[in-house]
Amino acid sequence: MPYCEVDRYQNGEKWDGVRLFYRRYGRGAVKVLLVIGLAGTHDSWGPQIKGLTGSLEPADDEAEAERTDEESGDAASPAAAEGEDDGGEGDGIEVCCFDNRGVGRSSIPPHKSYYSTAIMARDALALMDHLGWKKAHVFGHSMGAMISCKLAAMAPQRVCSLALLNVTGGGFQCFPKVDGQMLSLAFRFLRAKTPEERALVDLETHYTEEYLNEKVGSCTRRTILYQEYVKGISSTGMQSNCGFEGQVNACWTHKMTSKELDTIRSAGFLVSVIHGRSDIIAQLCHARRLAERLIPVARMVELHGAHLVSHERPEEVNNALMELIKATKSMMKPEEWSSQPENSSETGALISARPVSVTIQTDDGGNAAVAVYNLLAKLQLSFLYVIGVILMGFEHMRNIVKVMKPSKINSATGNQR
């Protein structure tokens, strides 16, 4: 099985022997690193792997043999290592996806202090070193998009382009849209102890009801996806508590500073921010704001779909990713990338360099809505904080009750049962 020993590539830094499980697909000079989100495993990228490489058959064995040869002295061509087109490999695309620390077949450090988007970005860079990739197109989903942002700010020279799918910020921005449905889902998620219970919750948070209720043959997508989710969760096992809590900590503590965003803006690579309009996990407004802060290098692509828009609208997402790769190859200038006219496709994709913002111009030219919008945002964040504290308190009390549950004592023998 292909593993990356992170410690070997950390320049003296030690991360307690963390190993990352990864898979490679396709062959080509164009390198793409896919970074998955919270509680997700590498195979969650299936539709994009298929769309980018044309195959779901791993190429790990052959690639591992080549990497061993390179370490023995038979180095690959500089162009291939740089992630640029090379005559020997043609115009193909090679994709690598992996399990983040804390989930799947990768190591699960026991304490949440071993998890942050910065640490996990260094994991991804170590994997690129392990693969012999000097540069790659870096595409991330949800928490993986947060990690990708950190990677791009840490090592902009390693990034060919950056795609952020269903991204949000850290801290309070991590809280989903709050309504009755979301509170019910959060409660059920905390109580989910089996693959079947977890699958039911995941489906409702990942897809729109419209998509789940579509007929596929004699049954609905919901039925088919439920079976696939149960099988997938059962094969890798339920994520451990310390892995889940660590990854949640990474999301909660994530923050992109103005300096880091300036680094990304000035690095010269193109950015695509892709989001589902019906996402209840990562709210669209936060993705729009991030795209605005990355102008002129960023383009916003809004699609009809929910948090897993990459699965719900794979063709549109893959087209957007391929367009990003092609624009990078043609050395399109950031100004050209972000200044292309807004348009709407037949599939419902809205492409805009400047995300739609909520503004109301008053007669005297002032922006009256800004103050109101900011106030509402602060009120929402305060409400989200209270809800989060309540949920965490509920779970904490439930654990205390379990620990303090009195033991039954046999009065005759005095033995505990």
Task: Describe the protein's architecture and organization.
It is a single chain. With 417 residues, this protein is α/β, with parallel strands linked by helices. It has 2 domains: 3-176 and 240-352, Rossmann fold; 360-404. It has 16 helices and 12 strands. It has helices spanning 46-53, 60-72, 78-82, 117-131, 143-154, 180-191, 195-206, 209-212, 221-236, 241-252, 258-266, 284-293, 309-312, 314-329, 334-339, 368-404; strands at residues 3-5, 19-25, 30-35, 93-98, 136-141, 159-165, 215-216, 219-220, 270-276, 298-303, 343-344, 350-352. The strands form 2 sheets. A 10-stranded mixed β-sheet has the order 1-2-4-3-5-6-9-10-12-11, with helices on both faces. A hairpin with a 5-residue loop joins strand 11 (343-344) and strand 12. Helix 6 (180-191) packs antiparallel against helix 7. The longest helix has 37 residues, at 368-404. The protein is globular. The two termini are 45 Å apart. Residues 72-80, 342-347, 355-379 and 407-417 have low confidence and may be disordered. GO terms for molecular function: catalytic activity. This is AB hydrolase-1 domain-containing protein. It comes from Leersia perrieri. Residues 49-90 are annotated as: Disordered.
